Amino acid sequence: MYIDVLLELKNKQMDQTYTYSVPKNLQKEIEIGKRVKVPFNHRELEGFILDKKETLQEDFEVLEILSIVDQEIVLNEELIKMGKFIKETYLCSLSSAYATMLPKALKASLKTNIQKKYQSNLILAIPYQSAIELCKNNLQKEIIDLIYENEKLSKKEANLISSSSVKTLLNKKIIKEEQEEVYRLQSTGILEDEKKFLNEEQQKAKDTILKSLNKNEQFLLYGVTGSGKTEVYMQVIDEVIKKKKTAIVLVPEISLTPQFVANFKARFEERVAVLHSGLSDGERYDEWRKIARNEVDIVIGARSAIFAPLKNLGIIIVDEEHSETYKQENTPRYNAIDVAEYRAKLNQIPIVLGSATPSLERMAKSTKNLYTRLELKKRVNHALLPIVTMVDMASEAKKGNFILSERLKLEIESAVSRKEQVILLLNRRGYSTTITCSNCGFTYKCPNCDITLTYHKTKNNLRCHYCGYTILKKDKCPKCHEELNFYGYGTEKLESLIKEEFPDLKVLRMDADTTRKKNSYETIINKFKNQDYDILLGTQMISKGHDFPRVSLVGIINADASLNIPDFRSGERTFSLLCQASGRAGRKDTIGNVIMQTYNPNNFILKCVEEQNYEKFYNYEMQIRKKLKYPPFYYLISLKVASKDYDLCSKEASKVCTYLKQNLSEETIVLGPTTASVFKMNNVYRFGIILKYRFDDKLMPTLKELDKMFIFNNKVNLEIDIHPTKI
Ligand code: ADP
Ligand code: ZN
């Protein structure tokens, strides 16, 4: 018998399977998807069995495998297919695809040493009656009784009763020890749960999805903040499970959504596995085995949970579909939603993508009926959407209020006096490399690409990193003629300012610094939820789907910051972030109030936020995208040519550009090469090339060819990012 083995070699040159023969004594255990240990270049390596056969096509010499690593299959048929899909779609190596899909303990690599965990149990070695008769005291009897009643007793518990009795009973061979495999994560206190009576819109959404349980239909669940999307997911999943099928639920980031997970655990109890970045390697390995052994029906997790080895999948749900965390920013650069759609198709099951602010791409598809759109326009329990008021910071700045406007201060006071809570969002997603006038809010933009220009200090100029457009930086603002400078301040500064202004209020801060420790995010959320604090301030983290019934005021300190990021999606991101943040206000019996501070009160996107009007935003942004040939009208691909040698890098980048122009269809637009957004990082230079295309048969073959050309080049590296979220 012969097998094809895929080894995990970092080197892309070696991304192929190698054939080995199997000695007679191991043949019975050989199954596709198990790991084997093989000799390779005088080393021992681990790899996956991807194929087996009885004879060789040609007569060549092959080596024998050394051993089989697993009893259970690691890569089932479905996972093998997903790996191939990722390789073909994102042009990465097959071994890097599988490496991403699996928990560390199951990767084909000899370096890991993550073991299963065992617990010692005590069981009776002789019949109960004889055991009791041999007992010398009541403690021994108690232990025997407990074992008898439960069939087994953990040694740890028995030792708490009397460790000397345990020893005696073992020595006399009245009881014996047995090892049982256990999971590291034990479920903790579970919340109370009540299944909600769905309102009309929710019911309609649920019914529509349930009608398609046996086919591959794609749904876009567009529901405003607080419209009860989670309840719809849960009730649909309940029906799926009743049909003995399983479900995957993807969320942007588990640690940011403790409440979401808690709701699922409350309803489905032990049948939920949660995969998140906070798990240790051992815990992750345990959760994975639990899933593979059909001990759970539902898997909730971030991006990589799409690879959970659930069998009999019945539905896939993706919450907050617009979130960019679904795209992996390093190799393999896959998008979990694309993989989810592929997996749903493989299984011929529905997929539901939910959001309060759907991505333009998917909303556009839904208008063409490529997705079935389901809408939840109203908040549950007749709560109203918040009222958003814009405050012009240019006139506040003249009064000396650079961070907190008069209006916001007044609203904080009045909310707190009514014993309501306040959230303050400091939108800090700006780059110090963008220049904004602190007097009037002016920012330089590229006339061709409508994105913010990036400041390059060395040459004192501003450049567009899409097309290369360059202008010299002036000292005075071209609009208001005041001194031009960068501005920016952090959450810490905001916190101290708030404490100065409101010394009696209790303030919580949440940002990357205060959430570094395990569970600290959850702790802050709970503290605020228990109403021990008046104000929660922080970065975008606070805008996620939390449900704080007592929050009536949301203050957006600087609505502009994310508008000025040099990326064509910055408008979309800003709209989504500010709507999500606003959505935290007034969720139960108070009407929500949002104060949005800005230097650009006439900005169209911000006006849409003010009106909480997604449709208006959508129509406006779609026009721009159409005019400038961006998604969803064109697809994008970003290429980066990188090297430590500047001249070589520049030369190769030009060659790549020429090659692309020569080989791609005429309608495909090739932009660049330009110095990429992060031009020099760790002494590596990068040149960027952007492709905009609609239909191009020659695209994938050309990119594959190009990729091959660089595999053997160890001076210059080529990175291809298919459908990037940021360029
Ligand atoms: P979304 O995810 O759409 O922002 P949630 O799912 O967080 O909204 O729902 C908001 C709140 O409304 C939650 O506390 C949820 O338990 C509650 N809820 C959802 N559906 C109903 C319903 N039909 N009746 C009463 N309460 C509901
Ligand atoms: Zn440009």
Characterise the protein shown here.
Helices cover 32% and strands 23% of the residues. It is of the alpha/beta class. The chain has 5 domains: 105 residues, PriA, 3(prime) DNA-binding domain (GIY-YIG endonuclease, 3-Layer(aba) Sandwich), CATH 3.40.1440; 66 residues; 182 residues, P-loop containing nucleotide triphosphate hydrolases (Rossmann fold), CATH 3.40.50.300; 160 residues, P-loop containing nucleotide triphosphate hydrolases (Rossmann fold), CATH 3.40.50; 88 residues, Alpha-Beta Plaits, CATH 3.30.70. The strands form 6 sheets. The chain has a 7-stranded parallel beta sheet with strand order 12-13-11-14-15-10-16, with helices on both faces. A 6-stranded mixed beta sheet has the order 5-2-1-4-3-6, with no helix packed on it. Helix 4 crosses helix 5. The longest helix is centred in the last third of the chain and has 18 residues. The protein is globular, with a radius of gyration of 30 Å. Adenosine-5'-diphosphate binds next to helix 7.
